[in-house]
Amino acid sequence: MCMNAGTLEGAPIELKDAEVDPAEIVTKALADLEKNVGDRLAALETKTADTARLDRIEAALNRRGAAPETKAADLGRKAFGDFLRRGVERMSAEEIKALTVATDTAGGFLAPTEFGAEMLKRIVEFSPVRQYARVITIGAPQIRYPRRVNSATATWVSETGDRTGSEPSFEQVSLTPYELATYVDVSTALLEDNVYNLEGELAIEFAEQFGKAEGAAFVAGSGVGQPKGLFTAAGIAEVKTGAAANFPASNPADVLIGMFHSLPNVHAQNGAWLMNRKTLGAIRQWKDGQGRYLVIDPISESAATTLLGRPIVECIDAPDIAANAFPIMFGDLSGYRIVDRVSLSTLRDPYTLATKGQVRIHARRRVGADVTHPDRFVKLKVAA
């Protein structure tokens, strides 16, 4: 007698009463099933390991894919250094391609991106207005902004009364980049010394000269051939000290409190104080009725010194306290706009001082600035 006990692994199994034990058949089937599941799990683990390995390979390839950009940046720095030391005449074609031509007729070359970033970083140390003002880069000789002067006016009327019409009026604010230039004379022997950090030394030298000139212009620039300064801009409201040549003898802090509250809250809460270090030294001595100093020192190294809760920006070019001077300004510096046209352009002149064994390296940048929102500022005049 034969009996079909079912199908395992696709093959029928015949049982004979006298020859096969049913328990043995079940045990073998379970063993086969366990082996099948084990094989599938092993295959899955192998696939997962392969996927992880492929991910690692892809990540490595991605890192290698960034190598050309790094190589290009290194080539740009090397090309700029070779340009300063030997001139374009002794450079390879690959190095010349790495430089960006600024003006073909003048033969000027722009500094590499890394060099320009270092320049701006150092300029901030000399010109702190950049930290707070709105700075943009433009690609045209001039940029214009519309500015609303007057708004439409609403009036109360009766149900059938005549309505009064009104129109907002606008004007244009033009910002023009002006050229700032300098040069340094470097000996030929120094340029030939390849181990000397020429690029770093020139970055410091140019930053000092450009930073000082920019800082002075952003504070007191006339707007003629240079940026318009904050302290000389038109349309900014004035607050007087009430004394002819200084602050009033009693309660001098009340003058600054009045300045703070003369601006709308939205501008005052984003405002900063501008003054030179000498003026700051004078108001540091002021105390309130409880004997607490008005100027509060920062609680951490990165924080700013504050006055009435707002930071103080030390501008070395701000006027001192004197009759008819404007020693202090307060306002939201986003209302002062700085436009950069050319970050840094250099020109190597090996001929002018060739008889003295020197090379003259010219540097220039183009930058402009002006007050776009005079209603966001108020300045203090020393007057009765």
UniProtKB/TrEMBL annotation:
Family matches, as InterPro entries: Phage_capsid, Phage_capsid-like_C
Chief site of localization: virion
Chain coiled-coil ranges: none
Record domain Phage capsid-like C-terminal: where: 107-381
Localization (cell): Virion
Pfam families from the UniProt entry: Phage_capsid
The protein, known as: Phage capsid-like C-terminal domain-containing protein
Organism per entry: Methylobacterium isbiliense
